[in-house]
Amino acid sequence: MQPFSLSSPLVLLDELAASDTDRVFDYCQDTIFERYLTVPWPYERAHAEGFILEYVPDGWLSDREYTWALRDPAGPGLLGVIGLRLTGESVAADASVHRVGSIGFWLGAPHRGRGLIPEAQRLVADWAFAQAIIDDLHWECLLGNVASARAAWKSGFRYTGVAPSVAAYRDKSYPDSWHGHLAAGDDRSPQPGWPAAALAR
Ligand SMILES: CC(C)(COP(=O)(O)OP(=O)(O)OC[C@H]1O[C@@H](n2cnc3c(N)ncnc32)[C@H](O)[C@@H]1OP(=O)(O)O)[C@@H](O)C(=O)NCCC(=O)NCCS
Q: Which is the most buried residue in 24, 88, 131, 178, by most CB within 10 A?
């Protein structure tokens, strides 16, 4: 698939460009990324270049992972990144086969606290469900990443429990993580059943 844009009055999701390299490099110096994300660490400029020039375009071309730049519709600067990885198929209780995607996201530190991720997740989920690219969207974060959990909770994900991460971390381990999912047709209001620890501010 070719990269394309999604937008609302609050966020613009479009193609990452070589001109975003400095911002990706700067934002990824945040030590919270070392703790909670799978990005390489220490994060070097070559990692930002490889991400933008190779990893992201390869994901679009192979239909393996669709990654967008998250911007303010009023300005071209990069605020963060959101991606949908197509992770495979699962068999539902009624024996139907569901195509599953996994959502991942981050914001540069100055751009947090504005509700940008729930909005961006809504745009990506609406598009992927409407195009029947996936039936089910999976979310996970490492235990303790309350900001990520609150963003998923606010977006309507249902909590499914603690289990090893699906994605391998940089040390090749699969640490215990909070998991949730959103199905096509689910309403997007915050759902009950989340543990207090995942939502504790
Ligand atoms: C996850 C992330 C994208 C969320 O960004 P955001 O939607 O702007 O959300 P905020 O940063 O405002 O945080 C979301 C909520 O968690 C709360 N929160 C933020 N940091 C927190 C912390 N350290 N402890 C407890 N609560 C926290 C905020 O108060 C907010 O709650 P509210 O909206 O009800 O007031 C952002 O925090 C981030 O980029 N983190 C680093 C990368 C990351 O962890 N990505 C997810 C990987 S699974």
A: 178
